[in-house]
């Protein structure tokens, strides 16, 4: 049976499920088509002259027109491609209905991470995912996905410089990314990198510039005559510290005032943190005692962190539907055909996202 689409090679029309039934989506590239048609008209009415004021032939005009359109598209397509659906079907082998398989780069382009970084609940999740890709999966991305990766990274750095939100997390990401690029450019060679080697050298220089900008970042002191963190009672401040799941966040908050520093050094606080992330069997392998013969839970936490992974907490994550094999953001949803969709959903950690596309 032939495909019902504009091109016999295409997978057909895109459909969305509504209350009135399934409706066909309009092509997402209409804006680009209108823009290209307008550009065609502008170029078609233009007369191209050389230094001797001779008019080019029709073929030369057509070639120049195509080249200008291509350059114009490259300059205006800095952001990622727009997709109407914010979900992707994850298939690892060919079936009668679908041929080929889903790649990491395709999923990275389809799931709209560019908009996800604007949501504070998803920001840390996306940054952690970018960090994992930088460590081991950068060369598995396609050229378009790599371009999208660095465009999103540019937006993240700009957001951190403007909002001063969690710069430590971005510094770790850039450090891992620069180390990976240095090893690929110098040690492995350009054979594993998509594109010209000079592009990657330019990207590495951009990363070094971002690192310098983040190092020179100065936190602006907000002037507020209302209630401040120091005005809260001790039990509330202590309750805030117990909510943190990262030891570095506790240390950073303890540097604000002497009172917070005293609360951040509480042994019980660090003991609870160790018990949350690690097991008793892991404690026994790396016991650290203080001068008084007591367990130094603070040093224990950072020692155990080197050997074992810590539990990750995110405000919002991607979800995977076991019934439909679809990866999606929960608030946007997907066209699920299960009788009880919520029972089929499972949250996807950044590492699980990477593992889904390993073959």
Automatic annotation (TrEMBL):
Primary location class: nucleus
InterPro entries per the UniProt record, alphabetical: F-box-like_dom_sf (IPR036047), FBX25/32 (IPR040394)
One example of a Gene Ontology biological process annotation: protein ubiquitination
Nucleus among keywords: yes
Region forming the signal peptide: none
Cell compartment(s), UniProt: Nucleus
UniProt KW keywords: Nucleus, Ubl conjugation pathway
GO CC, alphabetical: cytoplasm; nucleus; SCF ubiquitin ligase complex
Pathway per the UniProt entry: Protein modification; protein ubiquitination
Entry keyword Nucleus: yes
Role this protein plays: Substrate-recognition component of the SCF (SKP1-CUL1-F-box protein)-type E3 ubiquitin ligase complex. May play a role in accumulation of expanded polyglutamine (polyQ) protein huntingtin (HTT).
Protein name: F-box only protein 25
Organism encoding this protein: Eublepharis macularius
